[in-house]
Amino acid sequence: MNESKKIKVLIVDDSAVIRQILSQIISNHDDMEVVGTAADPYIARDKIKQLSPDVMTLDVEMPRMDGITFLKNLMRLRPMPVIMISTLTEAGAGITLEALQIGAFDYLPKPKENLGKGLFEYEQQIVEKIRAAAVANVQRLELNSLRSKSDAEQERPKIASYAPKSDYIIAIGASTGGTEAIKEVLLGLPANCPPVVITQHIPPQFSASYAMRMDNTCAMNVHEATSNQKLLPGNAYIAPGDQHLILRRSGGGLVTQLLDTEKVNRHRPSVEVMFDSITELGLKKTVAVLLTGMGADGAQALLRMKEMGSHTIIQDEATSVVWGMPGAAYQLGAHKEVKPLESIAGRLLQLTNKN
What keywords tag this UniProt record (predicted)? Predict the structure, then answer.
C-alpha cells in the first residue's frame, strides 16, 4: 500500500505497556501506522498539531487531564474519530457511555499482557475499528457531541392524538454509533408506544448501565431484558451483552427469551437472531429498524422480515456514523424506507398510530 494512504494512528495512554501492545498490533498491518504515542493529553495535544492523525486511541483514566475532559475539548476544537480504551467494569461502563455521548467513535477494552489466545481476536477487533473510524462520518460524531449538552433539557414527547395500534411491536438493531442513535429514536417515542425490542452490540458490563441511562432519559420504561418478560406497551427491552434476545409466544402474548447459543455474524447479541425470531413467529405487525453500525449483522434477516410483510426501515448514510449494517441491507433491497435518524421516531408513530 502507498505510504501516504496509510491510516495514521495516535495512541494516548499513560501506560507504557498498553502503548507498546497497541503499537505492535497496529504495526502488523500494512494499511495503518502509529505516527505517535502520548502519555497524557497535554503531549497528545501537541502531537495532534504536529502529526495530524486520522484516528486516535484514548485512555479513559490518565493523570493531569482525564480522557473525558480531553475528548470534550477535542470534539469542540478538532473533531476526529476517537476509539476509547476502557476498563470493562461498571464504573468504566458509565464513563465510556459518556464518551460515546460526547462524540467518541467507539471503544475497546484495555488489552491484557497475557491475552494469549485472545490476542488474535483482540487484534481483529482493533484493526477493524480503526479502519471503520478512518472513514467514519466525523460530522455525525461532532453533532452527537453538540447534542449531548442538551440531553437533560430535552422535553419528553407530547404527541397529539396518538393511539397505538394493538399487537404492533417495534424492533431495532444497531452497532457502532448505535447507543446514541437508539437514544434519539427512544426520545421521540411516547409512554404509550408499542413495545420495543432492541439489540445493540454491547459488552455485558455495559448493557445494564446503558438501559438505566435510557430509562432515566426516555418516556418509555427501558429494561435490560431478562427471560420471560411479557412484552407490554410503553416498555423497551435491550438485549444484555453476551446474550441473544429472541421473542416467543406464551399465554396468548409475547415474552422475551435470552440465549447463550453461538455468536452469529461474530456477535452475541446478534440483530439477525432477534429479527429471525420475529419472522419465525410470523409477526407481520412489526416495524423493524436497522441503524448505524459496522458489518452486516441483521441485513439478511431484515430482508426476511420484509418478505414476510413487516415494514422495514434503514437509517440513511448521511446520518449514520458507519453505514455498514444499513448499507448492507440497502444493497439487498431489505428496506421499504430509508430515513434520516431524526425522522425515524416520527415515522414509527405514523406507522403504529390507529388515529
Answer: Chemotaxis, Cytoplasm, Hydrolase, Phosphoprotein
